[in-house]
Amino acid sequence: MKLLLDMGVSPRATSLLCSQGYDAVHLRERGLARLADAAILRLAADEARIGITFGLDFSRILAIHRLPYPSVVLFRLEGFTTDEINLLLTDLLTRYANDLSAGAIVVIDPAHIRVRRLPIF
Fold it and tell me: Which end of the chain has fewer CB atoms < 10 Å from its terminal CB, N or C?
């Protein structure tokens, strides 16, 4: 599975995911810290990567343009440590691999996890 981590995600997640066999890259590694959200989604789509983000605009852009990809994992969590986020991330990448491969937004908030298949109408 190929992943693109947005700036709000700790770069430590990249190392962890790579150690687990994922092809993970962080925007910071590529010098793309200021890349706009729409451009991040295009990059993820062009490279067949799943976007990992805390940015709410990603799902809005996917919905407005009715895009079937890229898949996005959206964290809506506050007060969680990097280690807690990383643990959640590795678990949900396994649990929702089929949905993410097919095109989906997986939203994680403190109460639950929601999956919406793409495109959103």
Answer: C
Distances in whole angstroms, Cα of residue 68 to Cα of each of 34, 82, 85, 97, 101: 25, 30, 26, 16, 11
Indicate the pTM of the whole model.
0.94
27 domain-assigned: yes
């067949």: which residue's tokens? 48
CB 79 within 8 A of CB 30: no
CA nearest to 57, candidates 38, 30, 33: 38
HSE toward the beta carbon, residue 113, CA cutoff 13 A: 14
pLDDT of residue 121: 81
Query: How confident is the model over 88-106, as pLDDT tens digits?
Result: 999 999 999 999 999 999 9
